[in-house]
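Example 657, ligand adenosine-5'-diphosphate.
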Amino acid sequence: MMPSRFGQHSIHRHLAKVGAFITGVVGGVFLLILLGVSLVSSREELLESTSALASVLASNLTASVAFRDPGTAAELLNGLHSAPDVIRASLTLPDGSAFAEFGQADLSLSDGVNVRYAETLIIPVALEGERIASLSVVVDLWPVYQRLIGVSVLAGLLWLAGVLAAYLLSKALNARVTQPLASLAAMMAEVTAREDYSRRFSYRENNELGLVVEAFNELMMRTEDREQRMESMIAALVKARDDAEAAARSKTSFLANMSHEIRTPMNGVMGMIALLKRSHMSEQQSAYFETIERSSEALLTIIDDILDFTKIEAGRLILIQEPLDLVDSIASIEALFSETAKQKGLQLHVDIGEGVPRQIVGDPGRIRQVLLNLIGNAIKFTDEGSVSVFVRRIHDDVSPRLRFNIEDTGPGIHPEDEERIFGEFFQADVSLTRAHGGTGLGLAIARQLATLMEGSIGYQSNPVGGSIFVFEIPLLETPPGEAFDRAISAVTASQARAEAARLARLTNADAADAAPEIAQKANGSAPRYDVKVLIAEDSEVNQFIIRELLADFVTDIEVVADGVAAVETFKSKAFDLVLMDIQMPKMDGLEATRQIRALQRTESINPGCLIVGLSAHAMSSDREKYLAEGMADYLTKPVRPTALQEVLDAYFETRSL
Ligand code: ADP
């Protein structure tokens, strides 16, 4: 049997004690009753037999008393020898005088007699109904008690043996239950400690404990199964996490490296443009260079955004802390945007509240970058109304803060997108943002910069319609009296140009690809076609490139910037060919094609006019989609002069003009 670690407190011992106790109590009570009954009956029996003997003796003594013969009486009394329990007898006359006696007069002197346990029986001696003497017989009850004590001792010993036997027996029987329980508990403890759920408990008996063991084994089986599933899930998750982390790392380093690699030759390109622009050029060449320059600047802006973003993601962007003239800085931003705002017919207000210090400490370049992005967006997305910038000092916190509210009356942001616009590469309204350009990185960078400055940036919808962007940073003032000779907020000419380019966000890098071909086309003697062409294209640069490319082959060209204008213009002239961009604001190219085809069918407007799609998507499945909408063909951007000529060759005859 396995030693129990609970010692005195084990169930097994406890149950054995209970068994022994019950046996002891029941056996003890039974024994006591038995001893009591036997004591009473032995005593009664002795007294009765002595009393019968004394009665016989009393009738024999009648003659001796009647004839006053004490000798005979004494002889008769002596006959009591044969009754060992009678220790004394005396015959007394009615007047109280002793007539005859047997045994010691003083009982305490007789041998082995315990006076306390002696009992006296008085039997009358009568003659013809008259009492002539009294026979008193003293019976010694001590031997009866002695016998009973002996029996009691024996019974007590037997009782003890019984209790012990009950204890041992129930202990042995209980062990059959408690031992497997103890082993089960030990196994559970081991399983818990080692987390090894493959163990099973074996117990063959078909009883309640068997059910417990069965349930335990079932539990172990299920736990083991779940453990295995969890382990494989964890392994899969860990792998997925590692893969994702590795992918994120390689994405970040790829973006950082690529941005860096592209930036270097781009700087060369920009430098060469600057040099070339100084040489003498025709008006057309100047226009080409203008396009190249704008495209290069836009590309640089994107690369700069990506570089910033990857730097922040990789934790490599270090903020500087230096004094800056806030009022000057805001004034220069206002000056930068005032022209664009005026061109768009927007009111641009700047309101610097009382208590806003002129000089603060912070990273001037990064604060400026965030404000440029927010104010730039506000102006970019607002077509009418105003853009207001409020600068306030906030006191409601332990440390003072500076709050910039940039409010516009533009289209606002859908509640669903309010948080998402701060995610990378997210643009809320694709057609709107396509119309305005951009990368979808500006706000993501602005928020990360705000966080790095221990500030925040958030969006609220403007109650009068439009957006409110709230940018907050901790207010660190320059110590009073410190010379403020390091104001670095003045914008250099080149910075202003770069920021203006960032604002314009002309993303059509295609222009750079297509430009050399534009230059080439002037040299060859291209065939001419008598064809009226409508170009529907939203990007100014692409409009310019396509128009320039087409100008070699045809003379009659109209350009529109969206689908709605395309449909309208289509009705106004006998066009032979429509070059239709697919993605355009207001109405996309597919819808415009549908409407033009409907006009051709139902109203017979320019029924022979062909529609050729222009798409940046090179997916082959797109081709079927465009042709199904009624387009005759489609060209991928950047459009090459040869591709254009192929289309014209295929559908139109050359004419000498
Ligand atoms: P980008 O301007 O280059 O597209 P941003 O990260 O600066 O990228 O902005 C993300 C998107 O948030 C924008 O494309 C536009 O949909 C939305 N957005 C930002 N500012 C405004 C604004 N003032 N009004 C309306 N929409 C805005």
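Summary: The pocket of adenosine-5'-diphosphate is lined by residues 373, 377-378, 381, 408, 410-411, 413, 421, 426-429, 433, 438-444, 467 (CB under 6 Å).
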